[in-house]
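dude i think i finally got it to work??
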Amino acid sequence: MTRTRALILLAAAALAAARPSGAAAQTWQSLTSARQRHGETRLAVEVRYAAGEFRLSAAPAGTLYQMDLRYDEDRFTPLREFDAASGRLLIGARGKGGHVETVGHRDGEPTPSLDLGLAPDIPLALDLELGAVKSEVDLGGMRLSSVRYRTGASETTLRFSRPNPEPCSELSLEAGAAQFHAWSIGNANCRAVRLSGGVGDVTLDFSGAWQGVTNAHLDVALGSLTLMLPRDAGVAVRLTRFLASFDAAGFTKRGDTWYSAGYETARRRLVLDVSAAFGGVSVVWTGAGR
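look at this
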């Protein structure tokens, strides 16, 4: 069995384990909530979601947030707190007792799910902490001042489908035993990108509308890292590796740094500090040439 297939099965097993068992009494509930904007100028959002399916996208203009949550109240406690004074929103669901029970799943049973929409027209500081979750997250169209995304045994698709008009201080990504794909990171408009990856397959697509210099610190252990890099950007890679391969096609090494062609004259640059162990770092060049 390949490592990739093993990781997929591990994430699938964790998701299945988080679903309810036919042997236990179940009381499924749906919770729908929404709030319109009332003069808020910014919002700090914390999402804490233990297990299930998670979807996040921009809400309609004028909406502060909207959510639809489906959960088994015997096993999960919904989270929904809004503090208007501090501009803080806490939303999600946690396992009762502070953990997710590892019980089986029977065909035909519901799947826990959380659908969340957030304001597209005020600055957002996002802090997402997800457990055994299959997630589809599109942050395109939001005004992001910072993003922290943490996930455990999961399958994640993270997109920045449209440019972020707000200066973003940092995009921080933490992935455990996971398949983690992030698309159009250049649209996030974050000057710093950080990734900490455990056991998994990670794809980072740096296409998008960023300008100037973006710095990324990437640390991956026991997994593979695929870097999708725009051809019109100047890219520099400083690499620390242990039993990990590196695809150097398109780079020239000077000192301890790999440089793409035309790095010095490129209008925008990407500087990557990469640490990898027991895996591989591959490069895919995207877009038209210079």
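Residues 1-25, 99-106 have pLDDT under 50 and may be disordered.
im so relieved honestly
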